[in-house]
C-alpha cells in the first residue's frame, strides 16, 4: 500500500478525498481499530483488558514507549511526572487575562502553547533528551493547567499540586479542593476518572491526533503541536460531542422526555439536530469504549447520585435508535461520548468542562503520535493538494470600470 501510494504521487494525479475518508496519512504502530468488529487495541493490548487491569499512567507509558513498564520503569516515570507538576509563577498569571466565563478549551490550548515560551529548550524537535523532558512536562503540567482553568471560571484560588498524590487524585484535589481545607478523595471517583482517561488515551488518526501530526510535520515543537490538537478537539463533532450529548439529553428532558419525537426530528434532518454521541467515521459497530462506559455509568451513577433521569433518557434513546431503520442502515451506534458526560456530571464537573477531561485523557496518545511521526524517516511536511474550482485567468479591471 505504501509503495503504491508513492508511485501514484509521482504520476501527478490527485486523489479527491474530502474528510480523508479513504486516505492513509501515516503508518503507525500505536493503535489498532477494526471498525466493523468493534475492536480497539493499544500496542496490541485489547482495550477491555487495559480498562480492567491497568492505570492511566501505565497506559500513557505503554502508548509513548511501546511496552508496558516494569515496576522500576513505572516508578521512575511516575516520580519524574510528579517532579514537574508545578506551573511557573509567570504562567499562572496568564489566567488573569482571560474573561471569567471563557470556555476552558481555548484557555487550555493557550497555556499549552505558552509552554514553548517558558521552555525554549523544547524548540528543536530532534533533540531527544529535550523531547523526553517536554513529554514529562506535558503529562505533569496539563492537569495543573486544566484545574486552574476550572478554578478561574468559578473564581476560586489556585491550589499548588500535592506531589504525594497520584496524577488523577492530584488533579481532583486541585480542581475541587480549597486552600487550608482537607480534601478527601473518593476512591470510586478517582477510579472512574482514571478509567475514562484510559478509554480516551488514543484513537489513531482522529481529527485532533491528525492535527498534532500535521502541525508537527512542519517540525513545530511538541507543545505547539499539542496546543493545535486541543483546538481540533474543541469542535462539537469531535471532543465537544460529550458536552453536546448532555445538552441534548437535558433539552429532551425539559421538553417532556419524549425520545420518539427527538428521533423523528433527527430523521427529518431538522437544522442542527443530530443524535449527538452516535455515529463514528471508523466504527460501524458498537464502539467498544462505549460498552465499558455504559456499564460504568450505571455503577457510578447508582452509587454517587442514586441514579439519574438523564441516564434513563439516554438508554431509552439508544434503544429507540438501535431499533430504527435509519440508524441500522447507516450503522450508527453509540460512540465513546454518548455516556461519558453523565459520568462527568455525577463526578461534579460542569458541562463546559467535559471536553477538557477528554483532552487530559487523549494527551498521551497525541504525544505518542508526535514522537512516532518525528522519528519516522518517511515523514514529510503535510501538504495536501486541491481540485481548483475558481475562475480561469482574467484581466485586472481598474476600480473605475467595475
Ligand atoms: N445523527 C444522525 N445522523 C447521523 C449521525 C448522527 N449522530 N451521524 C451520522 N449520521 C448520518 C449522516 O446524516 C449520513 O446520512 P446520509 O448518508 O443519509 O446523509 C450518514 O449517517 C453518514 O454520516 P457522515 O456524517 O457522512 O459520517 P462521518 O463519518 O463523516 O461523521 C461523525 C462521523 C462526525 C462522528 C458523525 O457520526 C456525527 O456527527 N456524530 C455526532 C457527533 C459525535 O458524536 N461526535 C463524536 C465522534 S467520536 C469522537 O470524536 C470522540
TrEMBL record:
Keywords: Transferase, Tricarboxylic acid cycle. The active site is at 280, 337. PROSITE patterns: CITRATE_SYNTHASE. The keyword Transferase applies. Gene3D superfamilies: 2.20.28.60, Citrate Synthase, domain 1, Cytochrome P450-Terp, domain 2. It catalyses: oxaloacetate + acetyl-CoA + H2O = citrate + CoA + H(+). One of its GO terms (biological process) is tricarboxylic acid cycle. Pfam families: Citrate_synt. One of its GO terms (molecular function) is citrate synthase activity. Pathway: Carbohydrate metabolism; tricarboxylic acid cycle; isocitrate from oxaloacetate: step 1/2. The keyword Oxidoreductase does not apply. GO terms for cellular component: cytoplasm. PANTHER family: CITRATE SYNTHASE (PTHR42871). Belongs to the citrate synthase family. This is Citrate synthase. It comes from Saccharomonospora marina XMU15.
